[in-house]
Amino acid sequence: MGFFSSSRTAVRASEPNLSRRSFFSKVGVAATGALLVPSFDAFAQSLGRERTLYLYNKHTGEDLSLVYSPDQYYDRKIMRQFNHFVRDHHVDEIYPMDPGLLDILYAISAVTRSNGTFEIVSGYRAPETNQALRKHSRGVAEHSLHMEGKAIDLRMSDVSTRTIRKTALALQYGGVGYYRRSDFVHVDTGRIRSW
User: Fold this and answer.
1) CA-only gyration radius of the chain, Å
2) End-to-end CA distance of the chain
3) Which of 1, 53, 116, 130 is the most exposed place for a label (fewest CB within 10 A)?
4) What is the reported pTM?
5) pLDDT tens-digit series, residues 1-46
Protein backbone atom coordinates (compact mmCIF):
# COMPACT_ATOMS: atom_id res chain seq x y z
CA MET A 1 0.00 0.00 0.00
CA GLY A 2 1.54 3.32 -1.02
CA PHE A 3 1.42 6.41 1.09
CA PHE A 4 1.16 8.64 -1.94
CA SER A 5 -1.33 8.38 -4.76
CA SER A 6 -2.89 10.30 -7.64
CA SER A 7 -4.19 13.80 -7.04
CA ARG A 8 -7.79 12.52 -7.23
CA THR A 9 -7.58 10.94 -3.76
CA ALA A 10 -4.77 12.89 -2.22
CA VAL A 11 -4.02 15.91 -0.07
CA ARG A 12 -1.11 18.30 -0.12
CA ALA A 13 1.10 19.12 2.81
CA SER A 14 1.28 22.71 3.89
CA GLU A 15 4.46 24.35 2.72
CA PRO A 16 5.34 26.91 5.39
CA ASN A 17 9.01 27.14 4.55
CA LEU A 18 9.99 24.79 1.72
CA SER A 19 8.57 22.53 -0.92
CA ARG A 20 8.85 18.80 -0.19
CA ARG A 21 11.66 18.40 -2.73
CA SER A 22 13.59 21.35 -1.27
CA PHE A 23 12.96 20.07 2.23
CA PHE A 24 14.45 16.63 1.55
CA SER A 25 17.39 18.19 -0.26
CA LYS A 26 17.96 20.43 2.74
CA VAL A 27 17.63 17.39 5.03
CA GLY A 28 20.52 15.69 3.23
CA VAL A 29 22.72 18.75 3.48
CA ALA A 30 21.87 19.22 7.17
CA ALA A 31 22.48 15.56 7.92
CA THR A 32 25.86 15.43 6.24
CA GLY A 33 26.82 18.85 7.62
CA ALA A 34 26.04 17.69 11.14
CA LEU A 35 28.03 14.51 10.43
CA LEU A 36 24.98 12.43 11.25
CA VAL A 37 25.25 10.38 8.05
CA PRO A 38 28.34 9.24 6.13
CA SER A 39 27.64 11.03 2.84
CA PHE A 40 25.00 13.00 1.01
CA ASP A 41 24.78 10.32 -1.71
CA ALA A 42 24.11 7.56 0.82
CA PHE A 43 21.49 9.68 2.53
CA ALA A 44 19.83 10.65 -0.77
CA GLN A 45 19.45 6.96 -1.63
CA SER A 46 17.61 6.36 1.66
CA LEU A 47 15.15 9.15 0.77
CA GLY A 48 14.40 7.61 -2.63
CA ARG A 49 13.21 4.22 -1.42
CA GLU A 50 10.02 3.04 0.25
CA ARG A 51 9.59 4.67 3.64
CA THR A 52 8.23 3.15 6.83
CA LEU A 53 7.29 4.82 10.09
CA TYR A 54 6.51 2.90 13.27
CA LEU A 55 4.36 4.80 15.75
CA TYR A 56 3.10 4.09 19.27
CA ASN A 57 0.53 6.25 21.07
CA LYS A 58 1.45 6.29 24.75
CA HIS A 59 -2.07 7.32 25.85
CA THR A 60 -4.17 4.86 23.85
CA GLY A 61 -1.67 1.99 23.63
CA GLU A 62 -2.21 1.80 19.86
CA ASP A 63 0.49 0.96 17.31
CA LEU A 64 0.53 2.15 13.69
CA SER A 65 2.89 1.32 10.82
CA LEU A 66 2.82 3.60 7.80
CA VAL A 67 4.47 2.53 4.55
CA TYR A 68 4.75 4.98 1.71
CA SER A 69 6.78 5.93 -1.34
CA PRO A 70 8.33 9.30 -2.17
CA ASP A 71 5.96 11.28 -4.40
CA GLN A 72 4.08 14.54 -4.46
CA TYR A 73 0.73 13.67 -2.89
CA TYR A 74 -0.45 12.06 0.33
CA ASP A 75 -2.99 9.24 0.19
CA ARG A 76 -6.22 10.17 2.01
CA LYS A 77 -6.70 6.68 3.47
CA ILE A 78 -3.28 6.77 5.13
CA MET A 79 -3.87 10.31 6.36
CA ARG A 80 -7.20 9.24 7.91
CA GLN A 81 -5.34 6.47 9.77
CA PHE A 82 -2.71 8.94 10.98
CA ASN A 83 -5.34 11.53 11.98
CA HIS A 84 -7.21 8.91 14.00
CA PHE A 85 -4.00 7.67 15.60
CA VAL A 86 -2.95 11.13 16.89
CA ARG A 87 -6.49 12.20 17.83
CA ASP A 88 -7.19 14.04 21.08
CA HIS A 89 -7.79 11.05 23.34
CA HIS A 90 -9.23 13.27 26.09
CA VAL A 91 -12.33 14.11 24.02
CA ASP A 92 -11.90 11.45 21.29
CA GLU A 93 -11.78 14.14 18.60
CA ILE A 94 -10.08 13.65 15.23
CA TYR A 95 -8.61 16.56 13.25
CA PRO A 96 -6.83 16.68 9.86
CA MET A 97 -3.11 16.75 10.62
CA ASP A 98 -0.55 18.48 8.41
CA PRO A 99 1.02 15.73 6.24
CA GLY A 100 4.34 17.61 6.48
CA LEU A 101 4.66 16.18 10.00
CA LEU A 102 5.19 12.74 8.46
CA ASP A 103 8.03 14.13 6.35
CA ILE A 104 9.64 15.53 9.49
CA LEU A 105 9.30 12.20 11.31
CA TYR A 106 10.72 10.30 8.37
CA ALA A 107 13.62 12.74 8.05
CA ILE A 108 14.42 12.37 11.76
CA SER A 109 14.39 8.57 11.50
CA ALA A 110 16.51 8.62 8.31
CA VAL A 111 19.08 11.08 9.65
CA THR A 112 19.45 9.21 12.95
CA ARG A 113 19.37 5.85 11.12
CA SER A 114 16.68 4.69 13.51
CA ASN A 115 14.81 1.41 13.11
CA GLY A 116 12.77 2.09 16.22
CA THR A 117 9.36 3.42 17.08
CA PHE A 118 8.15 6.99 17.56
CA GLU A 119 6.29 7.28 20.84
CA ILE A 120 3.64 9.95 20.41
CA VAL A 121 3.16 11.98 23.57
CA SER A 122 0.72 14.49 22.07
CA GLY A 123 -0.76 15.02 18.63
CA TYR A 124 -3.95 16.94 17.97
CA ARG A 125 -5.41 18.89 20.90
CA ALA A 126 -8.96 20.19 20.96
CA PRO A 127 -9.17 23.79 22.26
CA GLU A 128 -10.78 22.65 25.52
CA THR A 129 -8.00 20.12 26.09
CA ASN A 130 -5.34 22.73 25.39
CA GLN A 131 -7.00 25.13 27.83
CA ALA A 132 -7.17 22.44 30.54
CA LEU A 133 -3.50 21.57 30.03
CA ARG A 134 -2.54 25.26 30.26
CA LYS A 135 -4.02 25.35 33.78
CA HIS A 136 -1.54 22.67 34.86
CA SER A 137 1.57 23.60 32.86
CA ARG A 138 3.30 26.81 31.85
CA GLY A 139 4.77 24.94 28.86
CA VAL A 140 1.45 24.78 26.98
CA ALA A 141 0.99 27.65 24.52
CA GLU A 142 -2.35 29.46 24.41
CA HIS A 143 -2.40 29.32 20.60
CA SER A 144 -0.69 25.93 20.31
CA LEU A 145 -0.12 24.50 16.83
CA HIS A 146 -1.41 21.20 18.28
CA MET A 147 -4.90 22.74 17.93
CA GLU A 148 -4.26 23.30 14.20
CA GLY A 149 -2.98 19.77 13.54
CA LYS A 150 0.54 21.07 12.90
CA ALA A 151 2.47 19.73 15.91
CA ILE A 152 3.51 16.48 17.55
CA ASP A 153 5.32 15.82 20.83
CA LEU A 154 7.41 12.66 20.70
CA ARG A 155 10.29 10.51 21.79
CA MET A 156 11.88 7.47 20.11
CA SER A 157 12.59 3.95 21.30
CA ASP A 158 16.19 3.87 20.04
CA VAL A 159 17.26 7.54 19.86
CA SER A 160 17.74 9.95 22.78
CA THR A 161 15.59 13.06 22.95
CA ARG A 162 18.80 15.13 22.85
CA THR A 163 19.67 13.58 19.48
CA ILE A 164 16.10 14.05 18.22
CA ARG A 165 16.31 17.72 19.19
CA LYS A 166 19.70 18.16 17.50
CA THR A 167 18.42 16.50 14.34
CA ALA A 168 15.17 18.47 14.23
CA LEU A 169 17.09 21.73 14.69
CA ALA A 170 19.43 20.79 11.83
CA LEU A 171 16.44 20.18 9.54
CA GLN A 172 15.33 23.82 9.88
CA TYR A 173 11.78 22.98 8.80
CA GLY A 174 9.56 24.25 11.61
CA GLY A 175 9.44 24.70 15.35
CA VAL A 176 11.44 22.53 17.73
CA GLY A 177 10.88 22.45 21.48
CA TYR A 178 12.95 20.40 23.92
CA TYR A 179 11.36 19.32 27.18
CA ARG A 180 14.26 17.70 28.98
CA ARG A 181 12.47 17.02 32.29
CA SER A 182 9.52 15.34 30.57
CA ASP A 183 11.87 13.68 28.05
CA PHE A 184 10.15 14.60 24.79
CA VAL A 185 10.65 16.83 21.76
CA HIS A 186 8.01 19.01 20.11
CA VAL A 187 8.14 19.35 16.31
CA ASP A 188 5.78 21.41 14.19
CA THR A 189 5.29 22.73 10.67
CA GLY A 190 5.06 26.35 11.75
CA ARG A 191 7.76 28.98 11.38
CA ILE A 192 11.36 28.05 12.19
CA ARG A 193 12.05 28.66 15.88
CA SER A 194 13.28 26.75 18.93
CA TRP A 195 12.96 26.71 22.69
Assistant:
1) 16
2) 37
3) 1
4) 0.79
5) 333 333 334 454 554 444 555 655 666 556 555 545 544 455 555 5
The CA angle 39-41-47, to the nearest 5 degrees, is 110
Number of domains in the chain: 1
CATH code for the domain of 68: 3.30.1380
- Residue 61: pLDDT band (50, 70, 90) is very high
| C-beta of residue 44 within 8 angstroms of C-beta of residue 38 | no
Task: Judge whether 2 lies within some domain.
Answer: no
Contacts of 102 (CB under 8 A, 6+ apart): 3, 53, 66, 68, 74, 82
Residue type at position 193: R
Q: Each residue of 138-159: pLDDT tens digit?
A: 778 889 999 999 999 999 999 9
CA–CA dist 137, 84 (Å, integer)? 25
Which residues form the domain of 103?
Answer: 7-194
**Distance (Å, whole) CA 39 – CA 32:** 6
